[in-house]
Amino acid sequence: MNIMSLSMQYSTMSTPIEEHDASIFSIPTSPTSSSRSTSPEWPFVAESLKLAMAVTNVCIVGAGYVGGPTAAILALKNPHIQVNVVDKDTARIAQWNSKHLPVYEPGLNEIVCIARDGYQDGCRSPNLKFSTMVESCINDADIVFIAVNTPTKVCGIGAGAATNLAAFERAAITIAQNLKPGAIVVEKSTVPCGTAQTVQEILSMYRPGESFEVLSNPEFLAEGTAVKDLLDPDRVLIGSSSTKEGQKAAKMLRSLYESFVPPSKILTVNTWSSELAKLVANAMLAQRISSINSISAICEQTGADIDEISEAIGRDTRLGPKFLKAGVGFGGSCFKKDILSLVYLARSLHLPEVADYWMAVLAINDFQVDRFTGRVVNKLHGALVGKKITVLGFAFKQDTNDTRESPAINVVEALLDERPAEIAIFDPGCTPSEIESAIKSQGSIERTSILSPNGPVKPYINAYEACQDSSAILILTPWPQFQYPPASVSEKIVHPIQANAPSQKRSQNTTCSADCALCAKLTPKQAETARECLDWSIVCETMRAPKWVFDGRNIVHKEAMLKLGFRVENMGRA
Whole-angstrom Cα distance, residue 7 to residue 28? Predict the structure, then answer.
């Protein structure tokens, strides 16, 4: 799928990436001599160009949701630098080297292909590589990023709150054993405050007598808009020591970003501030969601409308409109994990009041999921036995295939206790196997047979089949395909690709074998159908009474749906 069909279906980008900013695919060039004297940023750019000459090779350890997209953008914008992404997971690396990227993000496939495969006319050579040759790629690198998963601990001291740094520590040890003298280590993973010191200790243990700089460079990308966030970030944060060597290392890292990020957006702080700022940023965003969700419960009891309240307070310039959308709760791998890490830090520092404050944010999130499932059960008279329930949307948000900590998992788990005949699940961004893997990996679901052929949970590749004979539909992810009335033409139109577009010039080297299992998962027609807007009138005709729609994301208009024959429950409305 090309960048047009990905990026233009959603309102996150009003114009195609290629039309919006063609420069994102171009090879950066330095300003002309005539412009240097008049450009106020030229002194910074000149210094960056000088430092950039010292960086010819970058390695990112971890080919996940952070490492892959970050590497793609760095490679795209620094064509003179070789960017290697390494991971021990051979299957994941194989996907990055195929047509089937393991991460679904609008626009990412096109950017990866350009940086990984180059252009047909030879004007751009490939400079992005995905490999399992971890040790050799680390040894070649001038800068090594650590971008591995850092989940919450499930056992031992701090279980349920502290960050599990096992994978991070293994990566740091491997780096210490293979890092070339003078190379820089960068924390890209979200880690507890003070982790840079741990990395320094590991480096000293395995490389006594040698000196290495450790920087913090947390990611602030949001899944679903990762490409946009990486290309046009609100800020790039670099944490370093105050020593001369630390400042020099920070400038070298800064040079990678200054090829596409204005210098004014790149902030340099101390290492501890950088590490903590990442945790606080996610905690504050989650706090806003829980705040508006708490008010949605009041709205449902008073007749107020949560969307009207969100708009009213969002007009206040001190608050702004972002993260004020009420729903069934937040999910993803970051918010809950990072709040728990902050809570653990506060408790370790003997600040119980601070810890309790942030735990309340998570309590409201759990409360919102419980309220939603309770309304479903109550409206169906407490009797789900023998009924089919359909879940539309399983990823934790739209425009991604990431199901980690998705509220949908908790909703499905709660509904299973009511013994429905079937829980049908459809998500346009997730394959059935991804949905099955997410359910199986949920530690609290101990029902090994729920995904068997005769089990109650069934992922679908077709939305209409998932909804057929269903008594109730639960909208849990705000995909535009589920919206009613449908998204406007300007939001969902797929623009034609121009003949001179960068996507038409890239090399077509990536092919799959005839027996490619990933190709076999979805036929082209099935993939196309998954992206189409849902025709709710057809859905209504095939459902069984009472034809409930429980809108956990407030993306369908209640009165319009009533006219089609549905019964509707929204969040934050009586």
Answer: 23
